[in-house]
Amino acid sequence: MSPVRLRTVKLCKRFGGLAAVSDISIEVRPREIHALIGPNGAGKSTLINLLSGELRPTSGSIYIDGRETTNCTAYQVSQSGIGRTYQKTNIFLPFTVFENARLAAQSRLPTSMRFIRDASRNEFLNERARAALAAAGLNHCAERIASTLSHGEQRQLEIAMCLATAPSVLLLDEPLAGMGADESALMVELLKSLAHNHGILLVEHDMDAVFQVADRITVLVNGQKLESGTPSAIRNSAAVHSAYLGNDDHA
Ligand SMILES: Nc1ncnc2c1ncn2[C@@H]1O[C@H](COP(=O)(O)OP(=O)(O)OP(=O)(O)O)[C@@H](O)[C@H]1O
């Protein structure tokens, strides 16, 4: 197994004259939570969109488990082992929690499995869905309609749907957005447990949560890497304090 799950080399994305992501080289290792932080407009979501194949880079390269995916589609990237969640929750509200997870599992069925019909195929998908719900802490509400879940549970369901695609790396875009203290505490525990089996790239504005869970933090400002290091190195960085942590806009 590659010691690096996800790697970018001098990744750039321009929108016209704006360099939203500029020369970014980062890594995500197995069982590591690598947090990306930075003020609004720093380029965090653009970077995640590049990694998930939803945007094409202007230049630079992306590797998943050592294989180049720079110009792959979102579907191909997903098949390579990347799962992502979005700032806004993306779930099927009228369906049950279990049906949501099962649909996600089905969406990533390898082509070879499509020819296997009936019970064994169904049992494969059901087992994937059940395992994903268990890992996301949602086993107890598998039969509930998704629209009746709390905001925090809906965010957990989105993560479960991601897990149902059997990714090795998770790209999580603000999983704590809109959560109260109790929901945030639960999500922090969930992130720690997910890191036992996944590399995680985490974009999050909740600095308490970031400093609790991250093994490594990269700070982006104006599309550029300002600093990258352990939480204590970032906490003690004068450059980070003056550009970001020192001002109150980040929360
Ligand atoms: N599709 C686009 N077309 C043009 N400019 C864009 C596009 N997407 C993002 N940008 C610009 O790129 C810059 C980086 O935006 P991005 O959304 O990646 O920042 P961010 O760090 O995720 O911000 P936030 O924390 O507010 O989500 C911003 O100036 C934004 O306006």
Describe the model.
One of its GO terms (molecular function) is ATP hydrolysis activity. This is ABC transporter ATP-binding protein. The structure is a single chain. With about 250 residues, this protein is α/β, with parallel strands linked by helices. The chain folds into two domains: about 1-80 and about 165-250, P-loop containing nucleotide triphosphate hydrolases (Rossmann fold), CATH 3.40.50.300; about 90-165, no CATH class. It is built from nine helices and eleven strands. It has helices at about 45-50, 75-80, 95-105, 120-135, 150-165, 180-195, 205-215, 230-235, 240-245; strands spanning about 5-15, 20-25, 25-30, 35, 60-65, 65-70, 80-85, 170-175, 200-205, 215-220, 225-230. Helix 3 crosses helix 4 (about 120-135), helix 3 runs parallel beside helix 5 (about 150-165) and helix 4 packs across helix 5 (about 150-165). The longest helix is centred in the middle third of the chain and has 18 residues, at about 120-135. Bound molecules: adenosine-5'-triphosphate. Adenosine-5'-triphosphate binds near residues 40, 43 and 45.
